[in-house]
Specification:
Trna Endonuclease, Chain: A, domain 1; five-stranded mixed sheet; 7 helices
Length: 188
Amino acid sequence: MDAFEQLAADIFWNEGYWVRTSVKVDLTREDKERIGKLSSPRWEIDLLAYQPVKNELLALECKSYLDSGGVIAAHFTAGHKLAGRYKLFHDEQLRTTVLRRLLAQSSARGLCPADAQVRLGLVHGHVTSHNERLLQAIFTRAEGLRFPPAWMRERVVRLAEGGYENSTAAVVAKMLLKGAVISQPANA
């Protein structure tokens, strides 16, 4: 499991969601025929988050890109030569098939009711201001879910301000945001 996925899972847990990371979706032969990929391996969802009050099941792609240029809007721009990276966001047949199977699989395992609303979203940790504006417009037009760095930061602050939680995210948030002193080695 990726550390950023775990951070996102801790945040969604704190927001009232039941969470699972690295969820494999078992596609049937018919599913694979429908998407035109008979040799397709099991699809993996980075973070599955279910909110019982809303009866909402979120299938979330998590990308930190903390030490890079960040998420690139072109990857989400229909028709762009770089648009193939996030297949579930671009291929409607694939998205519908995978999310339908994910709901059936989750319901069969007792994780959510069969009538839960399934939504695809992106959680990311870094983006340039230029790409932020473009992504905001793209996701607004597509009615997509996006949890950008500012959303993540706000939730980390909430973790710091909340009661004690025995999670790495909450402990680090408290250490960094509640003024705890991190001692340096004497020879540093």
